[in-house]
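Task: sequence in, structure out. Protein: ABC transporter permease.
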Amino acid sequence: MTSVLRTTPRPADAAPSSTPEGRRPRRERQGPAYIFLSPWILGAVLLTLAPMAVSLYLSFTDYNLFDPPHWVGLRNYTEMFTEDPRYWRSVRTTLLYVVVAVPLKLGFALAVALLLKGMRKGKGFYRSAFYAPSLLGASMSVALVWRALYNDGGTVDEILSGIGIHTGGWVSDPSLAVFVVALLSVWQFGAPMVIFLAGLQQIPGDLYEAASIDGAGRTRQFISVTLPMLSPVLFFNLVLETIQSFQVFTPAFAISGGKGGPADSTNFYTLYLYERAFSASHMGYASAMAWILLLAIGAVTLVIFRTSRSWVFYANEGA
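Result:
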C-alpha cells in the first residue's frame, strides 16, 4: 500500500494530457486560416484555374464566339506550325524584341543604380524621378506619345534630320519599328533599377577595401566583386523582365495601330493572338497560341534557372 502511494504522482506533478481534450484538433486550428484564405482560393479557382481549363479545352476546338465549340483535335496546333507564316513572323519579332529589350533595360537599370549608389545628395529625388516611368507603365497614352515622338516628322525624326540622318520616321520603317517598342521598354527601367540599388547597398564595403588593397581598379572591382555579389539580384531581374517581355502587347498595339505594321514588323505574338481571337473570331486557334506561349515562357525560364548554377553566387554557399 505504501509503495503504491509513493509511485502515484500528485495532480500537480501529472504530465499534460496528449489526448484531444488537452489541445485543439489540428483541423480545428487550421479552420481560421482557410477562412482568411478563402477569398484568394476562390479568386484563383474562378479567375485563373477555371479559365485556364476552359482555354485548354478550346485550344482543341473550332470556336468563333457565336456558335458552340466544335472539337477538331490537334488541327489548331498543326495549322499554327505548318500553315501560318504570320505566326512564325510574330515569333521572330517577339524573340528579337526580347533579345534587344531585356539586356538594354537591365544594363541601363544597373548603370543608373551604380550612379545613384555613389551619390551623397539628392539620391532620393533622382531615384523617384527615374522610377516614375515605371509607375506609368506601358499605358496606351504613353505608347501614343512615344509613337508621335518617333513618327515621320516627330521630335526624334527632326533631331536626327538636323544632324544629317534622315530616317523618315522609325514607326514607318519595317527595320526600325520594333526598336521603337524596345526603347519604350528600356525607358521604363525604374523597377529593376530600384532592385539593383537595394542589392548594391547590401554588398559589404570590406570587399571593396580588400580588392583596392590588392591593387584592383574600379573596373576589376566591378567584375570581381560587384557582379558576383549582385548575381542573385541580376538573376531575379532577368527572370521577371524576360517573362514580361514575352507578353508585350499595349505598346505594340498603340504604335502599330493594332495592325502589327509596317509589314508585320511589330506584329508581336500577343498582338497576333489578339487579332486571331477578336478580329478573326478564331478563339480556338488563339487559345492554342496562348498555351504555346505559356509553354515557351516556362521553357525559357527553366533554361535560365538551370544555367544560373554556373553564374549566380550566393554569399552563404559553402557555409
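The chain has one domain: 75-310.
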